[in-house]
Amino acid sequence: MGKIILTGDRPTGRLHIGHYVGSLRRRVELQNSGTFDRIFIMIADAQALTDNADNPEKVRQNIIEVALDYMSAGLDPEKCVLFIQSQVSELTELTFFYNNLVTVQRLQRNPTVKAEIQMRGFNDSEGADNKAGTPVGFFCYPISQAADITAFKATTVPVGEDQEPMIEQTREIVRKFNSVYGPTLVEPEILLPDNAACLRLPGTDGKAKMSKSLGNCIYLSDSAEEVNAKVKGMYTDPLHLQVSDPGHIEGNTVFTYLDAFCRDEHFGMFGDCFHGKKVSFDFHSLDEVKAQYQAGGLGDMMLKNFLAAVLNSTLEPIRTRRHELEKDIPYVYEVLRKGSEEARAVAAQTLADVKRAMRINYFDAGVLDELIREQSEKYK
Question: What is the count of structural domains for the chain?
Fold first, then answer.
């Protein structure tokens, strides 16, 4: 069996730079590495509906946003399969079978589920309007995710560190299924970002991870002006009141972003980031920038101008490709249609393997004849 990737995102809005450094940039690198036999990238609209059931149009409209972000960031339909989750009905059937292999108590212990429930304001009580409690679909989405991964017999799942408990739950389901029904499913491995700053990029406010719902995102499709404005308002070091004051690196959001995005070639433009203001710094590495900031003499606005330039340098080719793709929306939907058909064919084969292992493939060729003979003999 070859090396296979499955990963994806919920279509709840445009993708932001946290998605980019956390997984999307790595997906493009893996796609172009030639080391994987197949790569499946899923737009998880069914999972998005687990906490957006009363607003399906939001999910529907955002499918194209995610597809545009995927392709503009470099995901190539010739090298990977881009598909929509809800169009592969076999995933729902696999989820139903896996439900029987997981206890409620185990789901309740999943730290990612607990954190997501808290972030969305769900609680254990339920009012008359049924809106206070946690939707069952949302509570069970680790099982749905296991179905997504195993349907394509994925060997590798590139995600951020917050998804580690989810992948471990998938591995548990695989082990339980194989122990009960025989070796059928593949146990996946997680692939985390290799840059520590990319594991969980904070929001521009520095108080939480980047999240659409918290309004602290920089989006891949943001204009240069929008990026500049958002960086200008970013959280830095509250004790760094004067330029001459020694600054702190730890917990400083600007430096976290620089760790995630800055490359050696960016330092050539450091002196051009200050709108004509003459500066004497000649940095060649981020370590030199950090040392100067900690010693004093480097202002927060200088750093923010440099970060904005770094981000815009990274995002400009993505923005350009997106604008081209926006001119041919029929092509984008055709990519998703073909990808969904291809994904469904693969998932259907896995579902057939699962039913065969569970001995519920009653009408398969040869199985029915054997079943009829067995039962006829029993009732003679």
Answer: 2
The H-or-E segment that residue 57 falls in is helix 56-73
- CATH number of the domain that residue 32 is part of: 3.40.50.620
pTM of the model: 0.89
DSSP state of 363: T
| Pick from 210, 197, 214: nearest CA to 249 | 197
At 272 the pLDDT is: 63
* More confident call, 202 vs 284: 202
Please check whether residues 112 and 15 belong to one and the same domain.
yes
Place 1 in a pLDDT band, splitting at 50, 70 and 90. low
Three-state secondary structure call for residue 28: helix
Give residue 106's domain range: 4-200+329-370
Q: What is the distance in angstroms between the CA of the first residue and the CA of the last residue of the chain?
A: 45
153, exposed or middle or buried, with CB in 10 Å at 0-12, 13-18, 19+? buried
Highest mean pLDDT among 130-139, 177-186, 282-291: 177-186
The reply to whether 273 and 339 lie within a common domain is no
